[in-house]
Amino acid sequence: MYRYDQYDQQIVNERVAQFRDQTRRFLAGELTGDEYKPLRLQNGLYIQRYAPMLRVAVPYGLLNATQVRKLAHIARKYDRGYAHVSTRQNFQYNWPELKDVPDILEELASVEMHAIQTSGNCIRNTTTDQFAGIAPDEVFDPRPLAEIIRQWSTFHPEFALLPRKFKIAVSGTKDDRAVVQMHDIGLEFYRDAAGSLLAKVWVGGGLGRTPILGEVIEEALPWRHLLSYCEAIIRVYNRYGRRDNIYKARIKILVKSLGIAEFKRQVEAEWEHTKEGETTITQEEFDRVAQHFTAPPYATLSDSDAGFEAKRTEEKAFANWVKRNVHGHKVPGYRAVTLSLKTTGVAPGDITDAQLDTVADLADKYSFGELRTTHEQNIVLSDVALTDLYAVWQEAKAAGLATPNIGLITDIICCPGGSFCDLANAKSIPIAESIQRQFDDLDYQHDIGELELNISGCMNSCGHHHVGHIGILGVDKNDEEWYQVSIGGKQGNDASLGAVIGPSFAAEEVAGVVQRLIDVYVENRTPEERFIDTARRLGIAPFKTRVYADRQPAKKEAANV
Amino acid sequence: MSDVVSANASNLIKLKDGVGQIVADDWTWVRIPKATEEVKKQAGKVVLFKLTGDATATAEEIAATDIPAQGRVLVPLAVWLARKDELAARVAAREVGVWVETHELVEDLVASVHDINALPLIAIHVERFADGRIYSAGALLRTRYGYRNELRALGDVLRDQLFFFKRTGFDAFLIRADRSAEDALASLKDFSDPYQAAVDDKRPLWRRHVRSVTA
């Protein structure tokens, strides 16, 4: 993975000093709350319902064991013994003291980490596929370019205060796992017939109040122009994006109002002036960064192992875990393993300090010291030998990290919601728990099969409910918490936004509603169909009919918001 | 320099060879008298930012703007566009600068003059700290339109923007009146070697230094 040189280290050290002074000035009354706000937000610090929340950047989801031990130490020393993996692959702490934040940043800087631009109206953490570099279907390892984007976007002076937050995702696989179509800019790398590396550029996607899938602004951007092209897009956005209404300030609104053709014309008029400038990425710089992402010293292994097969036959629990939590790898004899942070009774994505230490140990022992966070809020050990899988499973299981539910109904994507977040309309964690309890039977979960259930506590959509096969959104109705249910959303190459099935529900009804949706699916599915396939084939009508069968239309219900 | 003054007398910082100094301000900042301040709302909230391209002033307000007859005057773009003929002699004497709001387009200023460098001063006024359009305005004036004279930031100008201002081509900063320019000087040095290319250094870090892979 990328290691800092003296310049990278100097920048994060100078950031710590700068933020320490900004916080000192705020605490001394030299900065008002309003003046401190954009400064702390650019450093991932929110003032939340009960305490500040600090979001730590995990660039494109890549971590090493030393960093994870530091995260555990911070959870112990400055928080309440746990941390949270967010849907942007970052780590969050829910209970730090404001006065301690500069010290936390200093601890992070000591392991080449920071909280720069994890919030605020600026370019956020660039995300990518959690299987980058190891995926069997990978065309191009996007991590070097993700790192080049990270450096370019860090304290970019022209784009420090954009109309709204700005998210970039990169992908280099046939099968998109980076949800490029729901980002402000999505970059899908591929090679043309001649072998040249090009990017298909998507712009103006995003969830939130107005969910929109991105549109293609450029089909074939040569990789070396990546930064100048992004600068042209963001300059047009910075100048013309709406700042009068926070709900219309994302680039997607500008793209929609101009139309993609006119937006593209303006971007290209800008780009004409800069495209061959100094920001053009050189082969030397690409090679320098790419050297950090070379393969670990893999052993030459057979892609089958009798011991592993025997254990899988003997122990059903192990077999279930292998089926759900173990993924293909491009190197024979290796697999990627997802450690589930979705155990029933624990907030999705939460992990304790002791579990973090275990994860670091597992990485050191079995995965060349590296791991990844996923936007589904789990952790991946990227390079585990087939022969070690049984040991990894046993150790992960002992630490509560081996729930065999990856990609199943209980592997819920869920924002912190009203339990922590000041923006939320409704709580989301207890809803996730009620659904996990409803579907706690593992055989039943496996029978239902692949299903993505996503929950957001408000329109900001941090829980990606729009692209859940089943999406749940917390809404506020006369100061009561209600939940709107949608079906048919999907991430990936054939992404779609879910359709709301009807009027919303009270918290205690939600698990029952999900049960009815599942019943309709199970009764109607063909043998090869997943929930999403059946939902797409049938449309929402039969699901809606079942869910609302015994509800009176005039009953007290929240409006369909 | 003789115009270096004590912190109490001026809140104007100018860069000389990249180093900030507090200097006297010999320009009169001309503002448009506003008859009434309208309050607009969107989504239940007071609108804090004008949209790019929104009008700044009415014809009456522009006509009513008083331009001092003597000395160096920094006039608003809307006044400049409507009344530049009456300022022609003073432009020749290099007594006229123009200030632009963040919702106005620097292109309108560029189109209004034969040579942008006939203006010894251009200022961009940022009504609110969070309005990052000012950075694009500065960068465009310096790179696209070849402006070489003083480029000043006015308005809600606080020390934590200075580093970004400097990088996007500004070389003068009028610190908000209730804050210390002396304190603000420190923030010009927040970062010593930034990553990207910008106006003040057109090379990204990787073209400035040989960066080696460290183990």
> Which regions of chain B have little confidence, pLDDT < 50, spanning 5+ residues?
1-7
**Going across the major beta sheet of chain B, what is the strand order?**
2-1-10-9-8-7-6-3
Number of helices of chain A: 18
Average pLDDT value of chain B?
Answer: 92
The CATH superfamily of the largest domain in chain A bears the name Sulfite Reductase Hemoprotein, domain 1
**Major beta sheet summary of chain B:** 8 strands, mixed
Fold and architecture overview:
The complex is a heterodimer of chains A (561) and B (215). Chain A has 561 residues and is of the alpha+beta class. Chain A folds into four domains: 6-109, Alpha-Beta Complex (Sulfite Reductase Hemoprotein, domain 2), CATH 3.90.480; 127-290, Sulfite Reductase Hemoprotein, domain 1, CATH 3.30.413.10; 306-398, Sulfite Reductase Hemoprotein, domain 2; 413-547, Sulfite Reductase Hemoprotein, domain 1 (2-Layer Sandwich), CATH 3.30.413.10. Chain A has 18 helices and 21 strands. Chain A has helices spanning 6-27, 33-41, 65-78, 101-109, 143-153, 226-240, 251-258, 260-274, 283-290, 306-314, 316-325, 353-366, 389-398, 429-438, 442-448, 510-524, 531-538, 541-547, and strands spanning 45-47, 52-56, 62-64, 82-85, 91-93, 127-128, 168-171, 185-191, 197-203, 215-222, 326-327, 334-339, 350-352, 370-373, 379-385, 413-414, 453-456, 470-477, 480-487, 499-500, 505-506. In chain A, strands 16, 17, 18, 19, 20 and 21 form a six-stranded mixed beta sheet that branches. Chain A is globular, with a radius of gyration of 23 Å. Chain A starts with 5 loop residues before the first helix and ends in a 14-residue tail after the last helix. By secondary structure, chain B is α/β, with parallel strands linked by helices. Chain B has one domain (12-26, 56-208): TIM Barrel, CATH 3.20.20. Chain B contains eight helices and ten strands. Chain B has helices spanning 59-64, 77-83, 88-92, 106-112, 133-143, 162-167, 181-184, 205-208; strands at 12-16, 19-23, 27-29, 41-42, 45-46, 72-76, 96-101, 121-126, 150-155, 172-174. In chain B, the strands form two sheets. An eight-stranded mixed beta sheet of chain B has the order 2-1-10-9-8-7-6-3. In chain B, strands 4-5 form a two-stranded antiparallel ribbon. In chain B, strand 9 (150-155), helix 6 (162-167) and strand 10 (172-174) form a beta-alpha-beta unit. The longest helix of chain B has 11 residues, at 133-143. The termini of chain B are far apart. Mean pLDDT of chain B is 92; it is low at 1-7. Chains A and B meet through helix 1, helix 2, helix 6 and helix 9 of A and helix 5, helix 6 and helix 8 of B.
